[in-house]
Amino acid sequence: MRAIHLPFSAVLLVCTAGAVRAAPTATRQMVVANEVLAAGGKHLDGNFDAFLRRIEQVAGWAAGSLRGKAFARPREAVEHLRKTKPAFAILPVHQFLELRKELKLEVIGRAFGLEGTQIAYWGVTAVGQKIGGRIEETPGLRLAVTEAYDNQWLRVLMDGNVKDPSTHFKLVEVPSQQEALAAVLAKRADVALLYELEFQPLKPRIEAGNDYAWVYTSGPLPPPAIVATKFASRTDRKRLTDALSKLCKTDGADACGRMGILYVQSGKPELYQMVITKYDNWR
User: Fold this and answer.
1) What is the DSSP letter of 62?
2) Is the Cβ–Cβ distance between 62 and 5 less than 8 Å?
């Protein structure tokens, strides 16, 4: 058999082309979901872009190499995550639990906002509204929520004391937590289920016995999780994990603040285990 001799340049071209086809470069993406982002309005995209540039800076990635999208409605972020397969995300606990197994989410850090470190969901009603006992023991209550929470999540928030929340409550879905409060005052709902950040400003009005009254508190919950998905490379995963402790410090304070984040901590995945166990077991 006659040997076929190719010029060195031709061999190099063939090998290079094969290498490019065999190892395409994946685009790094980050998704952030939080209702607090609604306050950014038309500035949300600009705020998020500054946040991405800060992440690139501390992680040592090239400028413009990290892309993504921020959502003020976490439910929309869930569908986006499923479609675009990003490497990283910052998600409220509910969305983290919903996608954890599907996208093999690994907690690499925690993002703390204005809600602080002691986080819960709070049930609020209007003064004069007769609930008739604990809400877990009162079927038929109209519960105003900003997203249609699944049964597993509502069981977590009710600490397992409501076997089937979809039949125990009549869910009233509203576009924002402020609308949930308005629905209670207008008697379109009996109880508004509020996240810690929305409940804190109401405390003085509740304690003074003005227009709202407290009726429920969930168990403690961890803050939004910073996660790597199954699409993140091992190198990128380590780089971001190592960089998180620097993200919101000094020059990063403004970029984080514009996303409603005061500071982040890396690691500590074990702090999510309790809520993971509850979510998986309470079906």
Assistant:
1) P
2) no
Q: For 55, phi and psi rounded to 5 degrees? A: -60, -45
Token digits for 49?
């872009």
pTM, two decimal places? 0.86
Residue-by-residue DSSP string for 116-130: -SSB-EEEEEETT--
The 10s digit of each residue's pLDDT in 87-117 is 999 999 999 999 999 999 999 999 999 888 8
Residue 260, by phi and psi: left (phi above 0), alpha (psi -120 to 50) or beta? left
* Tokens 């304690």, residue located: 207
Q: How confident is the model at residue 164 (pLDDT cuts 50, 70, 90)?
A: very high
Classify the C-alpha dihedral 202-272-47-113 as positive or negative.
positive
Structure confidence at residue 233 (pLDDT):
96
Domains and CATH numbers, the chain: 28-116+222-269 (3.40.190.10), 121-217 (3.40.190.10)
Distance CA 144, CA 180 (A): 5
Distances (CA, A) of 172 to 27, 144, 175, 274: 39, 5, 10, 28
Give the HSE-up count for residue 50: Cα atoms under 13 Å, Cβ half-sphere: 16
Label the pairing between strands 106-112 and 28-33.
Answer: unpaired
